[in-house]
Amino acid sequence: VGSGAFMQRLDEAEELAELLITIGEGAGRRVTALMTNMDQPLGYAVGNALEVKEILALLQGNGPEDLVELTVALAVEMLLLSGIADDPETALKRARQRLEDGSALAKFVEMVEAQGGDPRIVEDSSILAAAPVKLSLQSPGDGYLARLDARLCGEVAVALGAGRRTLESEIDPSVGFVLKAKVGDQLSRGQEIMEIHAPDRDSAESAAKELHTGIVLSQDVVAFPPLIIERMDASGKSPWWFAKEKGGGGTKNRG
Prior knowledge:
Elements: H1 10-26, E1 33-36, E2 45-46, H2 48-59, H3 65-82, H4 88-100, H5 103-114, E3 133-138, E4 143-148, H6 150-160, E5 176-179, E6 186-187, E7 192-198, H7 201-212, E8 215-218, E9 228-233, E10 236-238, H8 243-246
Helix pairs in contact: 3-4, 6-7
């Protein structure tokens, strides 16, 4: 739910989740849904090869905090729904253990090989496509990052070639951008907010101009928005299992 989501309002997202849960339960399947914040990009990478690099970092123990949180949260739900784990604490421990002991990375390699991919990327991500032009997008002033429009980021990524506008469009796996700040971070004028990866200079500068329109700074401290807003199942809405443990959003400077 959020600017970059199919359903931008929470009530719409909840209505969709209820429908999906009802359909699943009607087909004899247990279903849960997580309402997650999509007002800004998840993780730091946007773009095909750039996101693969970020996933490799996650599987090797160095992933962005929000991407790790959501990945583990979904794994917890699947372990509970499948009956592999009997309670959330056991599921959480198991999911984290699989990341830490290399099991998740090994399974990823199996999946890449099964689909005809090159498993060497795990040891050498430099063989992934790389854009010829990189451009730094910098903060226009001092303040706290209050908004980083996820929908605009997606639209700009598509314009660079990271996605298809038509069925005939060719995807450029090298383009996109890497965030250097997230909502809540304190910034100084000229500090890098993101690095744009583009096929040429003109495309990079056009992307930078568009992305600037989706950046809002605040002079007041901005709290980090919670990533997982709520959990839903056939019995209704509830906080996610570990919401109290996590303590919600904070205000520290992660930049």
